[in-house]
Structure formats: C-alpha cells, structure tokens
Design brief:
- Belongs to the bacterial solute-binding protein 5 family.
- GO terms for molecular function: peptide transmembrane transporter activity.
- Pfam families: SBP_bac_5.
- With about 550 residues, this protein is α+β, with helices and mostly antiparallel strands.
- It has 2 domains: about 325 residues, 3-Layer(aba) Sandwich (D-Maltodextrin-Binding Protein, domain 2), CATH 3.40.190; about 220 residues, Dipeptide-binding Protein, Domain 3 (Dipeptide-binding Protein, domain 3, Roll).
- Helices cover about 25% and strands about 20% of the residues.
- It contains 15 helices and 23 strands.
- The strands form 6 sheets. Strands 14, 15, 16, 17, 18, 19 and 20 form a 7-stranded mixed sheet that branches.
- A hairpin with a 3-residue loop joins strand 9 and strand 10.
C-alpha cells in the first residue's frame, strides 16, 4: 500500500465511522453451525505464537489488530483503528481506536491494550516467531536484548489514541499491523491463563472460544458484541480434529462435513475432479506460496555450502510436482513467480545427479552421509518425503524420515534439532503481498532465533542489512526497492539454505449448503477460510 506524502507534518487522517459499515452479502443467512475437519489437533490459539496453516484463520476469527484486509483480498483497511495518520517522513503512525470495542470478557478495549500487546509479542520471553516483524519500532533492539521490557516507540497518547514511532521507515508497516501477531489482547486474561493463553484465548474477534476438548474438537461461538455490525453470520463453527483427510472427504460427500481443512487428498483429486457434481464444489485459488526443504546450516555437514548446493542439484522437482497431480510449478527461488521482486529468468540449481556427486566429493563426502528429514504426517507430505529420500540416496545421502504431527515438526524446526525439513503442510504462504515477507521470518537472522520459523538457521548479517535497507524505503512499490529484493534473494540462493521445490495452487472444497463468495474459501489472508463471512444456506 503506497503511503501518501504531504507537505504538512501529518498526512490527513483516513477516517471511517466508529463502527465499520460492511457491505453485507444480500444472500447471507444468519445462524447455523458448520463442521470443519483437521487431522492434527491445534497447538495454540495465542496470536503471538500461532503461525501455521491450521490455526491462522482460527486466530484471525478470535482476535483483531489495528489494521485488517477486505475479505478475500490483500487490500488493507483499518481494523480496530477507525483512522490513522502517517508523518511525512514515514516514521510516526498515529492510530485512533474505535470506541466501544469489547473483549470477549466484556471489558472495553483501550490504547493501553495495544501497547501491552506489542510489548508482549516482542518480549523474548514470549518466544513469538513473529517478533522480527516489529523490528522497525523504536526500542525493538532494547526489548529483544533484555535491556528493556517495553517498546519506547509505542506511546499511549490517551485511552483512544496510540502513537508508534519507527527507528527507520518500514514500507510494510501497515501490513505488519494487520498480522495475527499484532492482535490486541487483554493483559488480565493473559495473566489469568498463567502461561496457557493459547488454550484460553480472549480477543475482540467475531468468534470466541466456547469449548475445546483436546484431541477431539474445538467449538467457536458467535460474539454477540462484535464491533462489525451484522457479523459473523454463523452461530458456531465446530473444528473436529483427529480426522484423516480421506475420511473427511467421505464425510463431506455424505453431507456430514462442510469444509475439509486439510484439503482434497491428492490420491482422490482426479476422482473428485472427474465427477461434475463434486468438481462444482471445488474452489481453486492462486496463492503466494513456495514449498521448500530447509537445510540447517548449523548442523554438519550441512554447514558446508557445497553440500547444500549438491542437495539442491539432487532433487527432481518435476517428479515431486507430479506427486501432487501437477497442481504446482517447479520453483527456482524463494519468491513465487507472482510476487513483486521475483527474479525473471533465474534458473536456480538444475537437477544434475553427477554434478551433485562431484560437489559432495569436493566437500570430502564422496561416500555420502547420514541425516534426518522431518515431515508433517498428512498426505501427500510423507510421499513427497520418500521421493526426496530417493533423490538423496542417488548421491549417497541417507536421510531417515521423521514423519510427525505438524506441531512437532514446527517445534523441532524452531529448536534447530531438525537437519532437514520438508515444509509441505507448513509451506510458506505470504502473510502479505510484499517480498520482505519471504525473508524476515524464514530466512533472516530474527527468524533464526529459538522458536522462530527460519528452520535453516541461516543468518547472514550482510544480506540482513540489505533487506533492511530495502524495507527502509518509504514507497513499497518503488522499482529500486524491488530490484534490491531481487538481489537479496539471489544472494540467498548462492548460500543455498533451502531447496525451493514448487509453487502450489490452492484447491479446497465445500459442502452444498455453504454460502459466500469463493474467494472466502481461498482467502489470501485468512488462510484457509474466512469464517467471519461464510454462511449456510439451510
């Protein structure tokens, strides 16, 4: 989103009514329940912690941030802020809060809650994988180093006004304030949860947690006091866990399930698409996604760049793409082709077994080595891991597959105990449409900290500095900024901390009774479904 520049000290406020006037779907029916299935249980509903495919849209329905997106799009709009102002130098953001917004516990939300939430997410004790997103806020370095316990750049002007000063311009800052990590939470609820806020969440969102039976189901209930008039449409959403994707598909076909959260099982994809009645309920959507293998650069022999390049050359990406019914294109770099900053014409590392063997020999590993490949245990990921295992075996690398629940793979990645991870089921989908989003959390030094999502633990100070310089430009769409990002990713590829494998299209399915625009079921922000706006027609 371009920042408007003005000759005055402050840009004119962008104002909306105190309570957002939605253009509601004229066909929407209020009430009812839908059933969504997942194979794995949910690890957490804490917005400062949750960062996976499964809990992202759940958290977004429980909490709100100062900024938000138009449903089904990546178009920014004010959220808990009814208006905001940006200084001419791009360093000061003043947010004016909507009056009368209540937390699920009945208390009014005030500016102090915004400051508390930003302090909390950046405090190292929280171990938030999203802390690095807030690196431009003044005082960030002091709070992350433990020298301070509050962000000096966040000031409560009055109960309805928050001022945020940056230490440098950040072209992505309004997007950052729309991330789940920037959700506003009440301190008393966090304290009362005694370290378990992820199981006892309290927000301002369209839904509130009604019940959570670990290993069985979660039930979200409509927030009758929600500040967006007329929303949500549904009374409840039931998330059933422990459900194999093939069983979930059968139940959907029988009218017992409304959305299979893990998607259409690849083994059933051709069958579904070959049946006109079922294919009519399939929704396809583009996404800013890259599936990749992380190579832990702190674990020998993956600390040798030649070994990492050899592994890149060993992977047959075309064959892996075929395993998912060609619902993707082979990737050459971290950024997907439709993302600004993508380097056109870059071929990446070609599939070349003999060249890979030569590089291993050059690294003193002519006989190969043993390692481990971690993978999420939902189909097709174990099958993709087996294909990767076979490719690696062809160059003498013996990779033992560790097939685990999503939460366990994420934990191993954050702890740095996984030498290699196939990211499928957790593969990176952009939080917002800017090239910086593929760097900071998953390739930058901030993401390499304990609990972060930079599972390769790659940290190059020089590349980090170039990334920071790119984001310190005021205009996010400046062609020079896009060139800087292209240069950053080309330097990353020289270091080969990843094997980019493919860029995948998104396919999902819904029951016959589900209503709402198709874009809500492949929402680029409320991944995978925007529950606030969908409804049932019977």
């Amino acid at each position: 989103m371009k920042k408007l520049l003005a000759s005055t000290a402050l840009i004119a406020a962008i104002a909306l009514p105190a309570f957002a006037q939605e253009t509601l779907d004229p066909n929407a029916v209020s009430g009812g329940n839908i059933t969504v299935t997942y194979k794995d249980d949910v690890a957490t509903l804490d917005p400062a912690i949750g960062y996976d495919w499964q809990n992202w849209s759940m958290i977004k329905s429980l909490f709100d941030g100062l900024m938000d997106y138009e449903p089904g799009t990546t178009t920014l709009r004010p959220g808990l802020a009814e208006s905001y102002e940006i200084s001419e130098d791009g360093l000061t953001f003043t947010f004016h809060l909507r009056p009368g917004v209540k937390f699920h516990n009945g208390r009014d939300m005030v500016a102090e809650d915004v400051k508390y939430s930003l302090d909390r997410v950046t405090n190292p004790a929280t171990q938030s994988p999203g802390a690095g997103f807030f690196g431009a806020i003044a005082g960030y370095d002091a709070i992350t180093s433990g020298e301070a316990d509050t962000l000096t750049g966040v000031t409560v002007v009055d109960p309805a006004t928050v001022e945020i000063k940056l230490s440098r311009p950040d072209a992505t800052f309004l997007h950052v304030m729309a991330l789940n990590f920037a959700s506003v939470v009440p301190s008393e609820a966090v304290d009362a949860a005694n370290g378990d806020f992820g199981k006892m969440p309290v927000g301002t969102g369209a839904f509130k947690l009604g019940d959570w039976t670990i290993g069985q189901k979660l039930v979200f209930e409509k927030n009758a006091d929600y500040w967006r008039a007329g929303l949500p449409y549904l009374d409840t959403v039931t998330f059933e866990v422990g459900q194999e994707p093939i069983v979930a598909l059968l139940r959907l076909q029988n009218g017992e399930v409304d959305v299979p959260g893990d998607g259409i099982p690849p083994a059933k994809f051709q069958e579904v698409m070959g049946d006109p009645a079922q294919a009519a309920r399939v929704i396809e959507g583009g996404q800013l996604q890259t599936g990749y293998i992380t190579l832990n650069v702190t674990t020998p022999p993956l600390d040798d760049v030649n070994v990492r390049k050899a592994i890149n050359m060993a992977i047959n990406k075309e064959r892996i793409t075929q395993l998912i019914n060609n619902r993707a294109v082979p990737a050459t770099q971290p950024l997907p082709p439709s993302m600004p900053g993508y380097t056109e014409g870059y071929a990446g590392y070609a599939y070349d077994v003999e060249a890979a063997k030569a590089l291993l020999a050059e690294a003193g590993l002519a006989d190969g080595f043993d390692t481990e490949l971690f993978v999420m245990n939902t189909d097709p990921n174990p099958r993709i891991a087996q294909a990767i295992q076979q490719d690696l075996a062809a160059i003498g690398v013996n990779a033992s597959i560790q097939s685990l629940a999503q939460a366990n793979v994420i934990e191993a990645g954050g702890a740095g105990t996984a030498p290699m991870i196939w990211s499928g089921g957790m593969a990176w989908i952009a939080d917002f449409p800017d090239p910086s989003n593929f760097f900071g959390p998953i390739l930058g030094c901030a993401g390499a900290e304990e609990g972060g999502w930079n599972w390769s633990k790659f940290c190059n100070a020089e590349i980090d500095a170039e990334a920071t310089a790119a984001d310190s430009m005021i205009d996010p769409a400046d062609p020079a900024r896009m060139q800087m990002w292209s240069d950053v990713y080309m330097k990353v590829m020289e270091e080969a901390p990843w094997v980019p494998v493919f860029n995948e299209q998104r396919y999902t399915m819904k029951s016959e009774r589900m209503g709402g625009a198709d874009a809500l079921y492949v929402d680029p922000v409320s991944i995978p479904v925007n529950y606030d706006y969908v409804y049932v027609t019977e």
